[in-house]
Amino acid sequence: MSSTFSSNAERLAKNAENFPAIFGSVNLTSIRENVGEILKLIGRDGIFREYTLHDANHIDAMLALVDKLIPPDTAAKLKTADWLMIVLSCYFHDLGMLVTKKEFENRNTCAEFLALKVDLLAGEKGKDYEEALGRLALDEREEFLYQEFVRKNHAKRIYHCIQGQDAPQYGEAKGAVEVVNGLLEDLEQVVRDDLAKICLSHHEDDLFDLEKYQINRVYGDDPEGEANLHYAALLLRSADVLQIQKSAFRPYFTN
């Protein structure tokens, strides 16, 4: 990801750097550059090697969609806190897909992964699954199964990472937690907690919950410190789905 902001959303989110008392000493340029480097690691050791959509290009395409999805009248009313939450959620929402070689090697210490394997291969549907897996080499079979486990839980994984929590039930991801902590260590914890909820929301079915996704979340005395978390969550879900669909069916889309 280039350090030059190409989206209006990012340029407006960068204004958060002028409010350290509200957001902490956030450096959006540094976060963007480092997230881009981390995204390059997804697929490096076999897991998600075919998930080319979930890279820096996916993030930039989502932010371009965000610019288009927000009507001008609405954009004029959004505060710095809104823009920061929207942009950071686009940056971080898929980082739960990062799997290190060490994590994969320790996969069989995760009870939830072992349970998923049993569940996938159970019943009539499991027979079809097992037949398909039988065509793969043993190492490829294990990579696929762990990939399914991570894909199912990647939103929960980044939720805990952003909060600085190790969640071994979703895989041995201490390395990822440390990396995300390093990127967000200067962000106020209350902002981190809400960012975690928004990133989790893109794989949840609770966007109707206005207690969880408050429409007037206040972080400081300045008006620029008020965010509509519900709107940010809706934008993240919409941009993510639209971008993936556009990439999957590119011949049918025009600019």
What portion of residues belong to β-strands?
under 5%
Distance between the termini: 22 Å
Helix content: 55-70%
Largest sheet: 2 strands, antiparallel
Secondary-structure element series:
HHHHHHHHHHHHEEH
Q: What radius of gyration results from the CA coordinates?
A: 19 Å
Total of DSSP H or I helical runs spanning 4+ residues: 13
Total E-strand runs: 2
**What's the structural domain tally?**
1
* Strand line-up of the largest beta sheet: 1-2
Label the structural class.
mainly alpha
Report the uncertain regions. Answer: 248-255
Provide a descriptive summary of the structure in words.
The chain is mainly α and 255 residues long. The protein has one domain (8-252). 59% of the residues lie in helices and 2% in strands. A two-stranded antiparallel ribbon has the order 1-2. Helix 4 packs across helix 13 (229-248).
What topology emerges from the helices and strands here?
Elements: H1 8-13, H2 20-23, H3 28-39, H4 56-69, H5 72-77, H6 80-92, H7 101-105, H8 111-120, H9 123-133, H10 138-162, H11 174-184, H12 189-201, E1 217-218, E2 226-227, H13 229-248
Antiparallel strand pairs: 1-2
Summarize the model shown.
The protein has helices spanning 8-13, 20-23, 28-39, 56-69, 72-77, 80-92, 101-105, 111-120, 123-133, 138-162, 174-184, 189-201, 229-248, and strands spanning 217-218, 226-227.
Describe the structure using short key phrases.
255 residues; mainly alpha; elongated
